[in-house]
Amino acid sequence: MIKQKVRVKSFKINDITVTGRSDQTLLEVAKEHNIFIPTLCYLEGLSCVGSCRLCLVEIKGAHELVPACTSKIKEDMEVITTSEKIDSHRKMILSMIFSERSHTCSVCEANGDCELQNKSVELQLDHSLVPYIDSRFAIDASHKNFVHDPNRCILCSRCVRVCSEIEGANAINIAGRGINSQIIHDMDDPWIDSQSCTSCGKCVYVCPTGALYEKEISKEDVITKREIIHNLLKSRAENE
Description:
By secondary structure, this protein is of the alpha+beta class. It has five helices and nine strands, in the order E-E-H-E-E-E-H-H-E-H-E-E-E-H. A five-stranded mixed β-sheet has the order 2-1-5-3-4, with helices on one face. It has a two-stranded antiparallel ribbon with strand order 6-9.
């Protein structure tokens, strides 16, 4: 197989001239130049899937907004990361994420330490722009250490990717369609009955909400374990 030659590209983000490698995404180059683009499904060290769409940006000349996490850079392209149109799209997307499941922060394990909660502050979303669907799913607390609450899940697939790409267990997947989609273990078995799960906890500590959490653990230990996993992912990204 012939590898494509990596070249240095020069282009503009918000009228600022930046450079990056041809194999990099818009998000990667923006991060290197301290240009903020909101993300939710993205996590350094894992593959990018562009599922949450919060990182939508505008490329001059393009008809539609594109996800920065999966869009490769091009020479002389002009990118806009914030505008009335972009901000409106992001608020609507975030509203739809909130509306599909139960994200009442006051009764959530991740309250005060939730990326979804933080995004509502970052994007200044103080109320939902769409009606709540009020879906309800059964909670799986069968595992001796962990709980899976699908009602908090935003289907970012971080848990699926870390289980596959880092742990190599392939114990988690997404089943169903549309608003009925949810994370499953093996063939939709109770978590305790999963033959593939190694109980490593990586899925729990990459979850951006309270959909996966550990039982009977202090907030300090949660922060420590999350930092360990995120540092592992960051080290992997740097060595690639």
